[in-house]
Amino acid sequence: MSKFENVTITKEANIYYDGKVTSRTVEFSDGSIKSLGIMLPGEYTFNTHDKEIMEMMSGDVEVKLPGAEWRTLLTPEMFTVPANSSFDLKIKSVTDYCCSYIK
After folding, report:
1. What is the rounded radius of gyration, in angstroms, for the C-alpha atoms of the chain?
2. What is the pTM of this model?
3. Which CATH architecture group holds 7-102?
4. In whole angstroms, what is the distance from residue 64 CA to residue 71 CA?
5. Domain extents in the chain
């Protein structure tokens, strides 16, 4: 899906890692939540509360999921992260992403 319709977007940005990772929250009429954002080059660790589906739409990215080795993504590509876990990213170029939170 390249376009979202009939959504509510939170104007205030979610800002992480001194502004190197930012996103905006998008809420759908069914109550589901996504975030759309940009990551600048760097290495990051993210913790999950809910299960997450990460869609990396562009960029040069490596990911290390729980219990796995580092792997290079061929964007656009997506991966799933279990709830109550963490994952690591190495961002080598500006990266555009969409994260879906699964309750």
Report:
1. 13
2. 0.92
3. Sandwich (2.60)
4. 7
5. 7-102
